[in-house]
Amino acid sequence: MTKIDPDKVKVILATDCGSTTTKAILIQQVDGEYRQTHRGEAPTTVEKPFADVTMGAINSITEVEELADRRLIGDDGRIIQPATENEGCDIFISTSSAGGGLQMMVAGVVAQMTAASAKRAALGAGAIVMDVIAANDKRRPHEQIQRIRELRPDMILVSGGTDGGNTTQVVQIAELIAPAKPQPRFGSEFTLPLIFAGNKDAAPLIKDVFDESIDLSIVENLRPTLEQENLGPARDAIHDMFLEHVMAHAPGYDKLMTWTDAPIMPTPGAVGNILQTIAQTQKINVVGVDIGGATTDVFSVFDETFNRTVSANLGMSYSISNVCAETGMANILRWVHFDMDERELRNRVKNKMIRPTTIPQSKEALIFEQAVAREALRLAYIQHKEFATTLKGVQQQRTVGDTFSQEIGGQTIVNNMKLNLLVASGGVLSHAPRMHQTAALLIDAFEPEGFTTLAKDSIFMMPHLGVLAQVHPKASLEVFTRDCLIYLGTCVAAKGLGKHDKPCFSYEITGETLNESGTINFGDVKLLPLGPDETAQVAIEPAKGFDFGAGPGKRVQRKVTGGTVGLFLDGRGRPLKLPEARSESQQTMNRWVTAMELYPEMEAALV
Amino acid sequence: MAKAYTPGLKVTNRIKHRVKRILPIPGDVLAKVGDVVSADDIVAETFMPGDVEPINLANLLSLPPRDVAECVLIKVGTKVKVGEPLAQTKGMFGMFKNTYNSKFAGTVETISPVTGQLILRGEPLPVQVTAYISGKVVEVIENEGVVIENEVSFIQGIFGIGGETHGPIVIACKSHDQEVTADLITSDMKGAVVIGGARTTADAIIKVRDVGAAALVTGGIDDQDLKEFLGYDLGVAITGSEKVGLTLIITEGFGEISMAVRTFDLLNTRKGDEASVNGATQIRAGVMRPEIIIPLTAEEIAHEVEQDHSEGLLELGRPVRIIRDPYFGLIGEVAALPTEPAVLDSGSKARVLEVKLDSGESVTIPRANVELIEG
């Protein structure tokens, strides 16, 4: 990798090698600003018969070449660097989730403490956590060993103990792993990497436990004291091992690694990177979601603390049946505003599961899929909130004033009232026929409170920008703001519950394009036009018991930005509830569908 | 270009088929190239390291961990039986000794001076791989397994549960669109691969299992019936390890749906022949579908003509199956392949094709919602 002078960078090329598709984007300096200019995609070629990831990367870049009318690949089959007037690029970077991404097993002494911290480190690095082994995970030792034997992870992360604390229990965890002789996922010809990030005093003892069948590396303790998490060194070690072991064994990656100007990152790790960068630079709290066919990733940054969760079996095709099983058909159907036959739906769900690439042809099928998506997102966000907590096991310093407070360590740090930006990506959100539907899915599933900007990742560019942030933060931020996000609008929502048809809040909006005032009753939602790049001042006077961020019943005034959908005034209350009776729920949904302009051309027969 | 890749399920009367039979860990291969094997023959075997039982002697004998090693009576690498003394404390003046008798049989693997834990490894566990289909061994993969080849009729299902099994083909339904009901299942179907037609009822599946049949192959099943039979709702389509007393293979999908005529007719012509079936389904990257493999006899090989197996191209005139509502399960042929994307009723834009249904009606369908019927 060559040293890059950021001021001289004019052209940046980035690829993201996904499980099925490799996506390439071109970023160029236009009038002094970095803009994403062209995009290409091609099938990923990591599997046989091709078994060389660079072929798919080259194919996607070739598409960019044609669209941009700019030669990027030289006669030697390599990317042309540095850029000249008409050819090449200055920086080439890549992310990868091909071959199922990075799969890890983590272990710690106490499930809620060191093991939870280890899981956070692994997830934050972009891994799928296959299982968490802990001394108190309620499995007997031989059951734990059996489980370790069955798993075939790409690597293992072991933590346990605070620095200077007891060493016995952490060695005990290692003694469960060593005799299990875990096998790596990609064949037996390479040794399984194991990172130890626990009590530093236990490190020499850990070395004695493992033989040469494990490639052991020791890094700083990820929980040096109960009050402190130090995830950085473990995450870095995971990335290093990912490159050295996992990537190096995936077909063609050895070649791709020599081409890139920054280390190849796991795709979700890169998405986390860009969201953290945005939260830091703009001093905001962000939640991002990526809903796929098999899994749903949720990322959050609240008060500069980053968390990521992967809901392994919540997705829209491979896992659609699991979403229905977890939430129940009644919870899905509450989002549908017309009659549907439950038995028929159950069969349809299973048919989607076994033929996952099919798409909804009828409006009825689309509405049902979007109902399932609401539940998948809602469940994934619940899991995220349960995971993104303050450190457990920490003694809270209390004052006399706190005597009656029930708060303890382990409270979620996700606070929807403090949420500034909610970003959507993934098929069902990105490819919804109307952006109104994307916005509604976000609002109904995440239930933002107060003032929240809604956006979607235009072409799933966040992974590319996450890696770019490491080598050229300025370019990354400029592209993120101008081209990556499509702003849908702002949601202004009341927290609290009230009586139907009674006022929830009154509003007064002043702006260049929008001037309106009125009252929203509890249970109602209203959509007002406020286009992209338009702003307005919104003053809210909540009714008693409703909160918009200043406290119950207190007036709030904020400047809001518009988007392709507009400004939502949401008086439906939080938590968002639908009537339990099917007919009433249908009527309520029908009102919301109309107010949010979700399916305007829907045939009257269905409604 | 009016071409697109849309893989479908394979249904073919004759194909040269190879199966790889591999051990999960290295071991001994028992067959050699040229051997003719039948489905039940063991072609490779090995022993997995036995189960591990950690015993915390420090706790059990109230000893400091570093003192445990010298109290263990059985040397590392030596076997211990159930009830045999494994460790004994030194006691005081040779008296008041505390003994721990092993509750498990195994070999002492390690003794930790840090935790005072002894690791006992149980007897090695045998792992055997059978041939699964009859045929000839054409390749031996050293220490791993073999490749077996045969001329077979080959049918892929869309979804299944239960693992590998085999038995003679018995036809239960008179036609491809007859429901499988309990009264069609008889006790002489024991050990057989039972072929149904359309949807199977819950009673019928239970009866198939109760008469001891090896497998049931039919067109469809109701999700609710599958849930009741399994005892849980299936979340993701990764199956094969269910222990439910039979292997079930669905050829078309969930709901009221008949087996494709071609599939039913092919199975009907192979009545009485031995079939190897596997319900294992994995719908993730690297899709695995359930299969029905019927090895051909020498006479049948002479008689059956191998079909042309052009795969995956969506072309005018090719038979397709619609795999999503509102036309789910209907079969027709490709009538037109417009290049421009069209707006669907859902409001989405997608590339489509026109399908002329068997009824003569023509319908427009997203290309993602059809699959080729391959042979």
Describe the structure.
The complex is a heterodimer of chains A (607) and B (375). With 607 residues, chain A is an alpha/beta fold. Chain A has 3 domains: 6-98, 2-Layer Sandwich (Nucleotidyltransferase, domain 5), CATH 3.30.420.40; 101-250, Response regulator (Rossmann fold, 3-Layer(aba) Sandwich); 288-392 and 407-595, no CATH class. In chain A, 33% of the residues lie in helices and 24% in strands. Chain A has helices at 53-68, 114-124, 141-150, 168-180, 203-209, 232-249, 253-259, 267-282, 320-327, 329-333, 342-354, 363-387, 427-430, 435-446, 462-471, 473-484, 582-595, and strands spanning 11-17, 21-30, 33-43, 91-96, 102-108, 127-134, 155-158, 192-196, 214-218, 265-266, 286-291, 296-302, 305-311, 421-425, 450-457, 485-493, 503-511, 516-521, 525-528, 535-542, 556-561, 566-570. Chain A has an 8-stranded mixed β-sheet, with helices on both faces. Chain A has a 5-stranded mixed β-sheet with strand order 3-2-1-4-10, sandwiched between helices. A 5-stranded parallel β-sheet of chain A has the order 6-5-7-8-9, with helices on both faces. In chain A, helix 2 packs across helix 6 (232-249), helix 3 (141-150) crosses helix 4 and helix 15 runs antiparallel to helix 16. Chain A starts with 10 loop residues before the first strand and ends in a 12-residue tail after the last helix. In chain A, 53% of the residues are buried. The model of chain A is unreliable at 401-408 and 603-607 (pLDDT under 50). Chain B is mostly beta strands and 375 residues long. Chain B folds into 3 domains: 9-16 and 153-303, Phosphohistidine domain (Glucose Oxidase, domain 1, 3-Layer(bba) Sandwich); 52-121, OB fold (Dihydrolipoamide Acetyltransferase, E2P), CATH 2.40.50; 319-374. Chain B is 11% helix and 39% strand. In chain B, the strands form 5 sheets. Chain B has a 17-stranded mixed β-sheet that branches. Chain B has a 4-stranded antiparallel β-sheet with strand order 5-10-9-6. A 3-stranded antiparallel β-sheet of chain B has the order 2-4-11, with no helix packed on it. In chain B, helix 3 (202-210) links the parallel strand 17 and strand 18. The longest helix of chain B has 9 residues, at 202-210. The radius of gyration of chain B is 28 Å and the shape is elongated. In chain B, 42% of the residues are buried. The chains are: A alpha/beta (607), B mainly beta (375). Chains A and B meet through helix 3, helix 4, helix 9, helix 11 and helix 12 of A and strand 5, strand 10, helix 4 and strand 25 of B.
